[in-house]
Amino acid sequence: MRRDLALPAPPPAERHDWQTLKTLFPYLWQWRGRVILALVCLVGAKLANVAVPIVFKQIVDGFAPAKPAQAVLITPLALIAAYGVLRFGVALFTELRELLFTRVTQRAVRTIALQVFEHLHALSLRFHLERQTGGLTRDIERGTRAIGTLISYTIFSVLPTIVEVALVLGILAAHYEPSFALIAALTLVVYVAYTIVLSNWRVHLRREVNELDSAASTRAIDSLLNYETVKYFNNEAWEKARYDQQMQKWEAAQIKSQISLSWLNLGQSSIIAAGVTLLMWRAAVGVTEGSMTVGDIVLVNALLIQLYIPLNFLGVLYREIRQALTDIERMFALLKENREIRDAPDARDLDAGPCTVRFENVSFAYEPRRPILHDVSFEIPAGGTLAVVGHSGSGKSTLARLLFRFYDVGGGAIRINGHDIRQLTQASLRAAIGIVPQDTVLFNDTLEYNIRYGRPTASFEEVKEAARAAHLADFIERLPEGYNTRVGERGLKLSGGEKQRVAIARALLKNPPILIFDEATSALDSKTEKAIQAELDQAAVGRTTLIIAHRLSTVMNADEIVVLDAGRIVERGTHRSLLERGGAYAQMWALQQQEDRNGQLASV
């Protein structure tokens, strides 16, 4: 049986609910003035809400036949006015609370989302090569939404519910027999206990739904990102079947979750119904015996309704908060993800100006059992050009990743102007390096945006000049929308050569002291390659340049050429000296010359 390679990520470690709330608290306390005023309005709204049935009882008793006519005319009218004021007061305090706290909630959501986004960019390349984009984006989406839910429900629902329940129990205890408060309190305890036990049991079902939802999203996005590959192999039905296989699991988990929710709701309703029935029976007995008025039974009934609503909502709140905590687990786990590459505590900025790059006995392995580089040493003097050539898999592109410090070396050191790059800030290091990668991936935006990305503060004229230097301007000007032409997802609306010229323009616009050309002309035709090669040679003047190449015709003018084989330097020298030596480089040169001649004959 085929094993699926896109397995969902393992669930995060268990997280205590109080720890989550403790994590959120500092984000709220930054706005302590608004929080305190909102809490004052919250208490005011609940006091007014509980006072409403008390005033209503007085109105009912005021119309009782035994009352004098004057009292019937005056007292109930005044109480009716008070009743209206209290009703409006509930709405007023509630809306004031919402207005005061809206900025707090939204700012907390924004701040945490930005922290997660920033942290993801700070994680190593290793993490991003192993991640599943679809599942990750769903985790962040659910997590940010859950933060707002958690804050809103905790501050605006749980606390008001506690205040209201306490007020109702206090009124019952103060004005009626102890049995009234006792029955209400017992109903509350049983209800809360039942809700907590069953909701905790349902957490693993919710987590399973989330896991399967993320896995399904991962499959869908992965398939859509590889749209062309799916079409090439006519595998639409296969992709649909794989997606449906995951959705079937999600469907089954959702059904189980809903069944458990129905049992929870039925149990809660049974407990509430039993408590309300007992309290109404006690009130009816009191009216029959003459110890309570009609107004009292109206008051008890109204208080029971006000007790019932928060209690019923408390169950919903607990479920939603538990679900929000479950949803937020993954996003908080992302913040705990280890940053493999960190700035040293005493890291310094790389000084502006020319740069000398030196690899000193560098060894590296992506995994312990898979060594890539072995004791590699070379130096690129300031303003000099060094080319690294070799067969695929020899470790050439790894050199660029190490220089950018996407990974730290396993042995040896990489130095710029004598400074170990591990002692430099990553921001200043990467600001000093420009790269034209072999596989250019563009943003789904305009050509202008993608070129300007090399230096976002550049003027439009500077963008156009970089495009001209990359032999891209004529192509752009022929387009109906010119520089405003959108390039599509990952730049798929452009050819490979056009994308690579955008990457060249972007690197030229950045204008760094160090340049890396990683197979920079591999996607270009021979004519365009020769034209752009001249521009690259010109761009390299005065800059420290590392050329990683498979086509040896692009490195002939390098000051030094290093030949890598299985992660080791096997030859080094100029183009002429390496050809005269008749070693590995000369063999590669002869082979490529033969391939070029065969290609020319085939095109005739």
Quaternary arrangement of the chains shown?
single chain
Strand content: 5-15%
CATH architecture of the largest domain: Up-down Bundle
What's the overall average pLDDT, rounded? 81
Largest sheet: 6 strands, mixed
Give a structural overview.
- Helix content is 65%, strand content 10%.
- Residues 1-13 and 67-74 have low confidence and may be disordered.
- The protein has 3 domains: 17-336, Up-down Bundle (ABC transporter transmembrane region fold); 357-432 and 512-603, P-loop containing nucleotide triphosphate hydrolases (Rossmann fold), CATH 3.40.50.300; 442-506, no CATH class.
- The chain has helices at residues 17-29, 32-62, 69-122, 125-130, 133-175, 178-225, 227-232, 236-289, 294-336, 396-403, 426-431, 447-452, 460-469, 473-478, 496-510, 526-540, 575-581, 584-603; strands spanning 357-367, 370-380, 385-390, 411-416, 419-420, 433-436, 514-518, 544-549, 560-565, 568-573.
- The protein is α/β, with parallel strands linked by helices.
Provide the descriptors you would attach to this structure in a database record.
604 residues, six-stranded mixed sheet, Rossmann fold, ABC transporter transmembrane region fold, 3 domains, 65% helix, 10 strands, 18 helices, alpha/beta, 10% strand, four-stranded antiparallel sheet
Secondary-structure blueprint of this entry?
Layout lengths: L16 H13 L2 H31 L6 H54 L2 H6 L2 H43 L2 H48 L1 H6 L3 H54 L4 H43 L20 E11 L2 E11 L4 E6 L5 H8 L7 E6 L2 E2 L5 H6 L1 E4 L10 H6 L7 H10 L3 H6 L17 H15 L3 E5 L7 H15 L3 E6 L10 E6 L2 E6 L1 H7 L2 H20 L1
Parallel strand pairs: 3-8, 3-9, 6-7, 7-8
Antiparallel strand pairs: 1-2, 1-4, 4-5, 9-10
